[in-house]
């Protein structure tokens, strides 16, 4: 039982740091997606096409 009590704070810190890591990765992926979307729209405009616009949500 004492061993579990010693490991609990370490496990809690690891869980919190994993959440922060995943949030950071999610933000990075969102930024990359936005940049890719902007670049695709710019390329389409340069080729003389209308950029794709997503349909409005319901």
What's the layout of helices and strands?
Elements: H1 2-46
Keywords: Cell membrane, Lipoprotein, Membrane, Palmitate, Signal
Pfam family, one: Entericidin
Family: Belongs to the EcnA/EcnB lipoprotein family.
Quick synopsis:
This protein has 58 residues and is mainly alpha-helical. The protein is 78% helix and 0% strand.
Characterization of the model:
The protein has one helix at 2-46. It is mainly alpha-helical. Helix content is 78%, strand content 0%. The chain is built from one helix and no strands. The chain is rod-shaped and about 70 Å long.
Tell me the fraction of residues in β-strands, as a range.
Answer: under 5%
Helix and strand sequence: H
- Category by helix and strand content: mainly alpha
Shape: rod-shaped
Number of strands: 0
- Give a short account of the largest sheet: none
Q: Give the C-alpha Rg.
A: 22 Å
């Amino acid at each position: 039982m004492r061993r579990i009590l010693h490991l609990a704070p370490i496990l809690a810190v690891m869980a919190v740091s994993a959440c922060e890591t995943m949030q950071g990765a999610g933000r990075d992926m969102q930024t990359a997606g936005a940049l890719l979307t902007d670049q695709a729209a710019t390329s389409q405009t340069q080729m003389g096409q209308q950029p794709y616009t997503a349909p409005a949500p319901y």
